[in-house]
Amino acid sequence: MAMLERTDSGAHESRNANEHKFLSFCLGEEQFGVEILRVREIIGLIAITPRPQTPPYVKGVMNLRGRIIPVIDLRLRFGLAPTEATKETCIVVLEATDQDGPQTVMGAIVDSVREVQDIPKSAIEPAPEFGCEIPLRYILGMGKVKDKDRDRVVVLLEIAEVIGMRERAQIAGAIKETERRAA
Q1: pTM to 2 decimal places
Q2: Strand partners, 5
Q3: How far apart are CA 58 and CA 55, in angstroms?
Q4: Which domain does 32 fall in, by range?
């Protein structure tokens, strides 16, 4: 599996060049996207250590090059039926930052990663108020893209909202407990 890793050198130029770029991935037949600036890397499935007293969608924590990172299953987070992992199933390592809070690095299990797409602001519309199983606060917008002469919609996620403050505190507590036991 190809690995994408981001560095912070040239951050300002990179930010401008990547401002409207989104990594698209699938959960079932639905296509989602996250801002590429939030993506740290993409890795294949690795060992995940379950943690007690966390929400059901939190699969546990993983050791990624010496750093303990929480891992969530986006299917479960969005209330979709669980499915067996395939060779395309992977973990997208993301950075989520609140306006007034610290940065959280987490892994999100997705069915498959598709591509990096350029979706300008003019092609992003607000999420409809109906017909969506995902809470509206999780959605940054609906990106309109052309794919092989047909129009598609990519649900663009506000990743900081996907894991709320309460859940982050709960996950942080589980990680600290893991690190304390390992010491």
Answers
A1: 0.80
A2: 41
A3: 6
A4: 20-182
